[in-house]
């Protein structure tokens, strides 16, 4: 059965479970070209059968992810070339539904954003590449910047690693499923992936046949389906301390 009436060529970008359309929560959007936007969750309380416009996406761009945030969170965006930026959610003012958003990260050339995470207390940042390499790093390794900067090195991309496929905010008690283009699925405890430095190549997470590539990664929820609510209520709040106040346009990756 069709759950959504979608235009030709349109695809689902994200599924967000919602228990309550609270005025204190937001939907935080991210596009392939690094545009971000947040809108009060309550703006989507009354959705018609044909849906509502959630974000205006420019030609040549596409929505890649949507998260629930609590208003004072930290957000990390990562690109396929191995860069990432961490900034305050407060750097993005709330907007209406039919708006484009603002720049979250400055991209060079044909680079693209491949993932977005909302930082929650006790998490580490997992990075996975198309050739099955990956790593976990402490979030504090990513200095807090203003949105719109170029970011810092997230993983050193080489021919051996391949490009970055995705990032996830994970904890030791969770499990991970890695899925390849040829249909191979690998499941492993997150706690077995050691935490290493930010600007490294990572370790082998999954062995792939020649020509196969990692396509996606999923966190396995072990206890219940309320992880989205837990993260929204335990997200790391930030003030101005520790923020790099340099002009984001002049920030070079480290």
Q: Could you describe the 3D structure shown?
A:
The protein is mainly beta and 254 residues long. The chain has a single domain (26-237), classed as DNA gyrase/topoisomerase IV, subunit A, C-terminal (Neuraminidase, 6 Propeller). Helices cover 3% and strands 32% of the residues. Strands 4, 5, 7, 10 and 11 form a five-stranded mixed sheet that branches. Strands 3-1-2-6 form a four-stranded antiparallel sheet. Strand 8 (124-129) and strand 9 (133-138) form a beta hairpin. The protein starts with 25 loop residues before the first strand and ends in a 20-residue tail after the last helix.
Poorly predicted parts: 237-251
CATH superfamily: DNA gyrase/topoisomerase IV, subunit A, C-terminal
Number of domains: 1
CATH architecture: 6 Propeller
Distance between the termini: 49 Å
Class derived from helix and strand content: mainly beta
Q: What level of helicity do the residues show? A: under 10%
Provide the gyration radius in Å.
18 Å
Look at the structure and give the mean pLDDT: 87
Task: State the helix count.
Answer: 1
CATH fold annotation: Neuraminidase
Overall geometry comes to: globular
The H-and-E topology, N to C, reads as EEEEEEEEEEEEEEEEH
- According to DSSP, the number of beta strands is 16
Main sheet properties:
5 strands, mixed
How would the blueprint of this fold be written?
Elements: E1 26-31, E2 35-40, E3 63-69, E4 74-79, E5 83-88, E6 102-103, E7 113-118, E8 124-129, E9 133-138, E10 144-145, E11 152-153, E12 164-170, E13 175-180, E14 185-189, E15 203-204, E16 214-220, H1 227-234
Parallel strand pairs: 5-10
Antiparallel strand pairs: 1-2, 1-3, 2-6, 4-5, 4-7, 5-11, 8-9, 8-12, 9-15, 13-14, 13-16
């Amino acid at each position: 059965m069709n759950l959504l009436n979608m235009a030709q060529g349109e695809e689902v970008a994200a599924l967000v479970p919602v228990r309550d359309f609270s005025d204190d929560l937001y939907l935080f959007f991210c596009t392939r070209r690094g545009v971000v936007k947040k809108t009060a969750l309550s703006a989507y309380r009354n959705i018609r059968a044909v849906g509502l416009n959630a974000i205006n996406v420019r030609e040549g761009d596409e929505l890649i992810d949507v998260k629930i945030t609590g208003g004072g969170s930290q957000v990390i965006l990562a690109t396929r070339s191995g860069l990432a930026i961490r900034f305050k959610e407060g750097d993005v003012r709330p907007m209406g539904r039919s708006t484009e958003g603002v720049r979250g990260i400055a991209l060079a050339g044909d680079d693209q954003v491949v993932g977005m995470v909302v930082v929650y207390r006790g998490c580490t940042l997992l990075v996975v590449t198309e050739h099955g390499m990956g790593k976990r790093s402490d979030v504090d390794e990513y200095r807090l910047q203003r949105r719109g900067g170029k970011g810092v090195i997230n993983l050193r991309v080489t021919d051996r690693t391949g490009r970055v496929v995705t990032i996830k905010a994970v904890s030791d008690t969770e499990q991970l499923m890695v899925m390849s283009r040829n249909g191979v699925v690998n499941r492993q405890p997150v706690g077995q992936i050691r935490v290493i430095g930010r600007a490294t190549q990572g370790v082998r997470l999954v062995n792939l046949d020649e020509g196969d590539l990692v396509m996606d990664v999923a966190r396995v929820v072990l206890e219940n389906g309320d992880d989205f609510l837990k993260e929204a209520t335990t997200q790391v709040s930030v003030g101005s301390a520790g923020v790099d106040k340099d002009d984001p346009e002049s920030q070079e990756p480290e």
